[in-house]
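Hi everyone, sorry if this is the wrong subforum. Our group has a chain we'd like a structural model of before ordering constructs, and none of us has done structure prediction before. Sequence below.
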Amino acid sequence: MISIDSTLLIQIVNFLIILFIGKKMIINPVLNTVEKRDEKIESLNSEAAKLRSEVEKHKKEYEEKFEQVKQEAADYHKQAKDEAVLEAEKMYAKVKTEMDEKLENARKELDKQKEEAKASLRSDAENMAEEIVDKIIGKVA
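Answer:
Right subforum, don't worry. Here is the predicted structure as tokens:
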């Protein structure tokens, strides 16, 4: 049973002393630790947000540079292809010209050989005709 007597004042003083000591030795350090932890968490969250922002910024820069390099590579590829096509066309034209010249020279040589063969055959035919005539005239005479 609870009774109110002269020790009540002593009990209140003891309670206040324990409360004062408890606050100084336990509650305040724990509250300080919790407060520091919350500040640290907030600081880390702020730093994480800042880092996320920087990562997004760098990611965007990377994507822009990647697209730029990709476009440069495509342009270089197209330029190289165009140069190769142009070079191939020049080589084709040069080879075609050379082949046309060789073909023309071969035709001229063939015509020359044909004329020589005709002249030779004509000469042979005339010689043979003279021989035949001589033999016929020789037999008759």
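For your construct planning: Residues 55 and 61 are 10 Å apart (CA to CA). The chain is about 95% helix and 0% strand.
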